[in-house]
Amino acid sequence: MKSYYNHLQSIKNDGELLAPNQKPVFRSSAIFPVLHNEKQSAKVVFMGYWLLKRGITEIGLLLTLRNDEGEIILRKQILIDKAKAYSVSMSDFFTEPSDFVGSLELEIFSTRDLVFPYPAFVLVYFGENFRSYCRKNI
């Protein structure tokens, strides 16, 4: 089994020919169950590590919030062009207190090979006296 470093060295850069059996990854995604009410909420935290690991200058993040029936409530697009920590809170979507149960899908899009089809996002559930998390890691 080759190491992660050897794996990165074997990946092709822009303009290079791909092996016939190599399929580049231009979309990476994760989905989380989310809750939001006056006693608890959720937020997604992540770092723009693609810019560091792959030398990508910018990627697009598409957030899709769905209710418990699977209906799309809203979509939001974020341009990621800095390798820094990002946070997307459920309270960014709700201006008034409400009882919400649903899901949050996060999709990363790039014009360069992302290598992995699953991004490193962390979902944090929090309230006045607690904090927890679920992660989708690479």
Question: What keyword list fits this structure?
Answer:
138 residues, mainly beta, Hypothetical Protein Tm1070, Chain: A, four-stranded antiparallel sheet, 2 helices, 8 strands
Write the layout of secondary structure elements.
Layout: H1 4-10, E1 27-36, E2 40-47, H2 50-53, E3 59-67, E4 72-80, E5 85-89, E6 100-109, E7 121-127, E8 131-136
Antiparallel strand pairs: 1-6, 2-5, 2-7, 3-4, 3-6, 7-8
Rg measurement, Å? 17 Å
CATH architecture: Sandwich
E-strand count:
8
Please list the strands of the largest sheet in the order they lie side by side: 1-6-3-4
How far the N terminus sits from the C terminus, by CA atoms, comes to 17 Å
Helical segment count: 2
According to CATH, the fold-level topology is Hypothetical Protein Tm1070, Chain: A
**Low-confidence blocks of residues:** none
CATH first level:
Mainly Beta
Query: SSE order in H/E notation?
Result: HEEHEEEEEE
Mean pLDDT: 83
Judging from the principal axes of the Cα atoms, what is the shape? elongated
Q: What about the largest sheet?
A: 4 strands, antiparallel
Number of domains: 1
Outline the structure in words.
By secondary structure, this protein is mainly beta. It has a single domain (26-136), classed as Hypothetical Protein Tm1070, Chain: A (Sandwich). The chain has two helices and eight strands, in the order αββαββββββ. It has helices at residues 4-10, 50-53; strands spanning 27-36, 40-47, 59-67, 72-80, 85-89, 100-109, 121-127, 131-136. The chain has a four-stranded antiparallel sheet with strand order 1-6-3-4, with no helix packed on it. The longest helix has 7 residues, at 4-10. The chain is elongated, with a radius of gyration of 17 Å. 16% of the residues are buried. The mean pLDDT is 83.
